[in-house]
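Methods — Computational structure assignment.
A single polypeptide chain was analysed. Its primary sequence is given first, followed by the predicted tertiary structure written as structure tokens.
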Amino acid sequence: MSSRTCPTLLERLRDASDPVVWGDFFQRYWPVVYGYARRRGCSEHTAEEIVQEVMLVVFERRDAFRYDPARGRFRDWLHCVTFRCVAGRRRCRSERVRARGGDWSVPAIEAESDEPRPDAAWETAFEHALLTALVDVVRRESNPRDFVAFELTVLQERPPAEAARIAGMTRNLVYKARRKLLARLRELAGDYANDGRLCQQVRLALASLPEVSIQRSLTGRIDRTMRPH
């Protein structure tokens, strides 16, 4: 599976007047930032605030976005921004605890390097976000009934007979839909699909998605922040 960021999206992101582009960018990357913050021990509320901080940094630096592979991957730059936001929040928390005479055993903040290396938490968050995005592509390309059959049999691992009853299809049609959409998912995933873990990893990615209420809250906050004045 390619880990590259779409060059067209980065170029179009420079246009602050295009809300559709910002919506695409936000939907693609907010779960990465949120999931990473949660894996680094942030509360739900703090993780939401970190998403808002990171998106604001991206917004403010959008004029610098010109796709150039020689300058490194966008995902690594986004990691640096997110890492520093998380570290800053944790540092402030530690200082508040100690100022109140609290527990001095609060874990120390990692020293910030000029270019902190992406860690396992970031790679996992990024992988999950990419996989859920691929599932969304399959959903949008498919007719609703076929996707229901695919979702029930592949993503929820229900028996084909049960899926046929729920979807109002014959078992033969369920098998056909499952085969067709699974082939498309594997095509989108590229080399990632070759190790045999694709479906398992997709299910883990979907299970890791934040509550819908969190997405709604963040969408509203980001919309207010990015709205042209």
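Note: The chain has a mean pLDDT of 78.
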